[in-house]
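Saturday, quiet lab. Running sequence design on the structure tokens for the scaffold JK sent over.
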């Protein structure tokens, strides 16, 4: 790949691990819930920014399967904010032509939330400007195991042969089947780990770790990351 090619790195999908809400609040002597509230505002700002920057897919890690282990108070705060988001913030996105998808284990969520999620997916399914994918009660290992079980079931029923199982088939059966792999993965808050996010899908994503806490993350920083991404050389194992 020449330097010129790498400057033209295509950018269609950005995935973000939105971390640091609790520390943002603690630094200000506020309860963790205040950090989550500010974090939810930044979700809306960054979604808008992604649309304006011409990004086609934005996948946001909102709540992991492991986050269910937090205190009942914190889980309840987060679910309350989620309800507000689903009822209020989504409207603006809908008007802007954003398609909204959810990935994760829906059976863990309250039924009113799940109903709202299906409704939003259905109402926005023909929108074409930006696809916002929200990872909610999401765990990547769980997703991979669920996919392995689906494939095993097809095999046992005799619907597929062993030879039919390949990378494409596996990808097409993940929660993310409708979206391409991320070009960029960003994690805020200085932690340099993946925390069970999109393990299969980020095989060749470019990784960015920023010390900025999620509630302080801005469009300007997103633009800086995109600029740096354009200078990276994606080799995919070739020379
Ligand atoms: C990210 O912020 C939001 C969720 C995981 C739901 P945290 O709540 O993890 O904030 P820190 O990492 O404790 O600062
Ligand atoms: C990852 O953040 C999950 C989300 C951002 C939703 P965590 O704060 O839960 O991850 P760990 O515990 O630091 O690995
Ligand atoms: Mg965290």
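Result came back. Writing it out in full:
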């Amino acid at each position: 790949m020449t330097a010129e090619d790498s400057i033209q790195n295509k950018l269609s999908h950005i995935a973000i691990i939105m971390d640091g809400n609790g520390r943002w609040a603690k630094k200000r002597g506020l309860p963790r819930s205040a950090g989550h509230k500010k974090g939810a505002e930044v979700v809306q700002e960054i979604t808008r920014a992604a649309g304006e920057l011409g990004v086609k897919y934005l996948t946001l890690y909102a709540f992991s399967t492991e986050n269910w282990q937090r205190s009942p108070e914190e889980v309840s705060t987060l679910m309350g904010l989620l309800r507000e988001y689903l009822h209020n913030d989504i409207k603006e996105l809908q008007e802007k032509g954003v398609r909204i998808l959810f990935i994760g284990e829906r059976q863990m969520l309250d039924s009113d939330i799940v109903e709202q999620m299906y409704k939003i997916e259905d109402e926005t399914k023909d929108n074409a400007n930006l696809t916002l994918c929200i990872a909610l009660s999401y765990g990547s290992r769980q997703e991979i195991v669920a996919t392995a079980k689906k494939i095993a079931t097809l095999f046992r029923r005799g619907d597929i042969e062993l030879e039919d199982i390949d990378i494409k088939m596996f990808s097409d059966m993940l929660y993310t089947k409708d979206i391409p792999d991320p070009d960029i993965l960003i994690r805020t808050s200085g932690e340099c780990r993946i925390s069970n996010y999109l393990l299969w899908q980020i095989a060749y994503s470019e990784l960015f770790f920023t010390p900025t806490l999620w509630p302080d993350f801005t469009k300007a920083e997103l633009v800086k990351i995109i600029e740096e991404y354009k200078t990276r050389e994606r080799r995919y194992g070739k020379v």
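Notes for JK: The chain has one domain: 3-139+180-228. The first strand starts at residue 13 and ends at 17. Ask whether to fix the surface positions before the next round.
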